[in-house]
Amino acid sequence: MSLPHALLTALLERPCSGSELAGRFDRSIGFFWQATHQQIYRELKRLEELGWITALEPEAGRGRKRAYQVLPAGREELRRWTGEAQEPKPLRDELMVRLRAEAVIGPTDLVRDIESRLAQHLEKLALYQEIERRDFPDGGVTRQRELQHLVLQAGVMAETLWVDFCRKAIAVLSEADVATH
Amino acid sequence: MSLPHALLTALLERPCSGSELAGRFDRSIGFFWQATHQQIYRELKRLEELGWITALEPEAGRGRKRAYQVLPAGREELRRWTGEAQEPKPLRDELMVRLRAEAVIGPTDLVRDIESRLAQHLEKLALYQEIERRDFPDGGVTRQRELQHLVLQAGVMAETLWVDFCRKAIAVLSEADVATH
DNA sequence: CAGCTCATGTAACTGGTTACATGATTGA
DNA sequence: TCAATCATGTAACCAGTTACATGAGCTG
């Protein structure tokens, strides 16, 4: 249940409205946690009811922008949750299911799809490295910057892994194709 | 929507009952796709209604073991799905949300949790490497074995990444702790 | 035949997704 | 002033999770 805490974090970094949050979830925060605007509005309402956030200008509803800020109770809840133990989620990837299916039913078009994934991961890797070069030329200086850098590095590491794996998979699938024909 | 296709793959590898499938989802298949027995039974019923699988012995219900095998229509569906294009799912990890929260609200107990995660990832990595040593001493020989090996390697790569990342995170969090006190 | 375990199954709930609706603001 | 766009919101749905129930078969 990370969404409420991702929202608290985002609102602490800078108070803003639901639509702005949706925008931020398409960029920085969205690199490691995604949310649609429907989820965000639903959750903001809940957080307000819980007394963890409050609207800055108590003006009314539909169509009018409504910015929120975090209340002390929200900050306290975020602190509690951040230090809480969590089990690491096991790997869960559709591509692995497909590879295992290929192993059973023989050659399919899967290799085409992996080539296209490779291109996308290369693109994302380049994006992250560009951001890293621009925003963290000397790593992080303050504690906050170091932690932000760390999260970005996780993205770089993950995309690098995917690039490596896609190349390996393409090699295996192509080689096997040749041997089969 | 991988579960039906994971089940088709498992049943092609070896026809079996729901409870046996649940067991297999705790081991090999479960390393990259998890499912509870409730999900499995629900899905098996659906697959049978779709005409993709059929019970081997048409004996009745509750309490009696019911083994299934894949029908030609099921195999065809699996082939179709395997070659289908899929967008790579973006990284989505609670730990990144927590790190970002730490960056905003200052030191918490997070580093303890990461130390415990590190131990778990090391354990899983050792398990995967043990399986690799035992089952793939010379890599894969046939196409099928090579693909199975590839999937296992993905597990090794992912756990290695997590081990590296946890160590990096512990370094940053500890160092920052010292600087803060 | 009592009690245990195995195998199958039901029900309620949660987080996330998709499709659609409506009020407010802006600018040609 | 009206069409486009922005901001907020409702509803239905889907995959996955948790808790619990019940029939079948085995063992002491």
Mind explaining what this structure looks like?
Chains A, B: InterPro entries: Tscrpt_reg_PadR_C, Tscrpt_reg_PadR_N, WH-like_DNA-bd_sf, WH_DNA-bd_sf. Chains A, B: It comes from Nitrospirillum viridazoti CBAmc. Two copies of one chain form a homodimer. The longest helix of chain A is centred in the last third of the chain and has 38 residues. In chain A, 65% of the residues lie in helices and 5% in strands. The model of chain A has no long low-confidence stretch (mean pLDDT 92). The first copy, chain A, has two domains: 80 residues, Arc Repressor Mutant, subunit A (Orthogonal Bundle); 87 residues. Chain A has seven helices and three strands; from the N terminus they run H-E-H-H-E-E-H-H-H-H. At the A-B interface, helix 1, helix 4, helix 5, helix 6 and helix 7 of A face helix 1, helix 4, helix 5, helix 6 and helix 7 of B. Chain A binds a DNA duplex (28 and 28 nucleotides) through helix 2 and helix 3.
Helical/strand content category of chain A: mainly alpha
What's the number of helices of chain A? Answer: 7
Strand order of the largest sheet of chain A: 1-3-2
Anisotropy-based shape of chain A:
elongated
Order of helices and strands of chain A: HEHHEEHHHH
Average per-residue pLDDT of chain A, rounded, comes to 92
Largest interface, counted with CB-CB under 8 A? A-B, 75 and 75 residues
Structurally, how many domains make up the residues of chain A?
2
Which percent range describes the beta-strand content of chain A? Answer: under 5%
Query: End-to-end span of chain A in angstroms?
Result: 49 Å
Q: What percent of residues of chain A adopt helix (DSSP H or I)?
A: 55-70%
Number of strands of chain A: 3
Low-confidence stretches of chain A: none
The quaternary state of the protein chains shown equals homodimer
Largest sheet of chain A: 3 strands, antiparallel
Radius of gyration of chain A: 21 Å
